[in-house]
Amino acid sequence: MTSDIIEIWAGVLGLAYLAALGLYFEMLSARKRSHVAASYGFDHRHVRSQAVKIR
User: Using one digit for the tens of pLDDT, what is the confidence trace for 8-52?
Assistant: First the structure.
């Protein structure tokens, strides 16, 4: 019973490690492609000005 729990936790931690590693490399490659794409929506929020309609 105890060895089963240890194996399950080892598998969960291994998958979490692989997911974190994948996210890290994805962030690195996005930063290399274009700096704006990696941080769009977080740091650089551009507001488009809209023309005001006067009746």
Answer: 999 999 999 999 999 999 998 888 776 554 555 555 555 566 676
Looking at the DSSP bridge assignments, the partners of residue 48 are: none
Judged on CB neighbours under 10 Å (0-12, 13-18, 19+), 7 is exposed
Residue 15's identity, in one-letter code, is L
Question: Is the overall model pTM greater than 0.85, yes or no?
Answer: no
Q: How far is it, in rounded angstroms, from Cα 50 to Cα 27?
A: 33
Q: Round to whole Å and give the CA distance between 25 and 17.
A: 12
